[in-house]
């Protein structure tokens, strides 16, 4: 089993609140990712990181931000949550470089509901 | 055209059946290919990597056809526990993987 953890598991908050979704991995992986997935839909990459102090935006435009101060930690922050942010957020990590032997390991996700 | 496209599903099959899923990808430079399994309201989990020569893991066989840019997954002797959504995943850049929408499989007694 992969050692990657996300908290909280479920979160219900009001519009306008600032929130941070936590993600930590204990595998020493350099690469980390945040995906967003709506029910019945595909995963969309919103942020990724090659390593400490590296962050990149993914394919899906997102109003969230990320930071990578430590290898094991890759939090995602929404400054002002809106109902359109309601979704499941999945954190993942992988060894570098990407290849047939370095797939993604996912955390169990944060299901966010903004009312 | 989407970067990764899968059979829409759902596939409803009886226990013991053989079922095959197809997936096509648009980027001819893609080098990494995977099949993931996702249970309802759970995170995706790696089922198997897909190698150029094709590979097998128990009841599961994956094939890659680079010329036609498609990947397949064959499941033999389906079990109830195989019911899930199967995601085709392809690298479409140096560091990123693109997921297909998934094909849902429902195995019934």
Q: What's the gist of this structure?
A:
The complex is a heterodimer of chains A (115) and B (109). Chain A has 115 residues and is an all-beta fold.
Task: Give an account of the 3D structure.
- The complex is a heterodimer of chains A (115) and B (109).
- Chain A has strands at 4-7, 10-13, 19-25, 31-37, 44-49, 56-57, 65-66, 76-78, 87-94, 105-106, 110-114.
- Chain A is an all-beta fold.
- In chain A, strand 4 and strand 5 form a beta hairpin.
- Chain B has 109 residues and is mainly beta.
- Helix content of chain B is 0%, strand content 52%.
- Chain B has no helices and 11 strands.
Output mean pLDDT of chain B.
92
Distance between the termini of chain A: 34 Å
Number of strands of chain B: 11
| Binned strand content of chain B | over 45%
Order of helices and strands of chain B: EEEEEEEEEEE
Biggest beta-sheet profile of chain A: 7 strands, mixed
Largest interface: A-B, 27 and 25 residues
The number of distinct helices of chain B, counting runs of at least 4 residues, comes to 0
Report strand % of chain A: 35-45%
Shape estimate of chain A: globular
Oligomer: heterodimer
Number of helices in the DSSP assignment of chain A: 0
Q: What share of the residues of chain B lie within helices?
A: under 10%
Global mean pLDDT of chain A:
90
């Amino acid at each position: 089993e992969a050692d990657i953890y996300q908290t909280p598991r479920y979160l219900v908050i009001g519009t306008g609140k600032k929130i941070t979704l936590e993600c930590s991995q204990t595998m020493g992986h350099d690469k980390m990712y945040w995906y967003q997935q709506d029910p019945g839909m595909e995963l969309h990459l919103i942020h990724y990181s090659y390593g400490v102090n590296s962050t990149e935006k993914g394919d899906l435009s997102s109003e969230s931000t990320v930071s990578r101060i430590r290898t094991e930690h890759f939090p995602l922050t929404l400054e002002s949550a809106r109902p359109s942010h309601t979704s499941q957020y999945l954190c993942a990590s992988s060894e570098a470089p990407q290849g047939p032997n370095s797939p993604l390991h996912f955390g169990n996700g944060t299901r966010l509901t903004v009312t | 055209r989407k970067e990764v496209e899968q059979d829409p599903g759902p596939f409803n099959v009886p226990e013991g059946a053989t079922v095959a899923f197809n997936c096509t990808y648009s980027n001819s430079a893609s080098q990494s290919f995977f099949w993931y399994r996702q249970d309802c309201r759970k995170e995706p989990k790696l089922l198997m990597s897909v190698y150029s020569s094709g590979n097998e893991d128990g009841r599961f066989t994956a094939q890659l056809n680079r010329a036609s840019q498609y990947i397949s997954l064959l499941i033999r002797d389906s079990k109830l526990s195989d019911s899930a959504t199967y995601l085709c995943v392809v690298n479409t850049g140096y560091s990123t993987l693109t997921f297909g929408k998934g094909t849902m499989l429902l195995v019934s007694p």
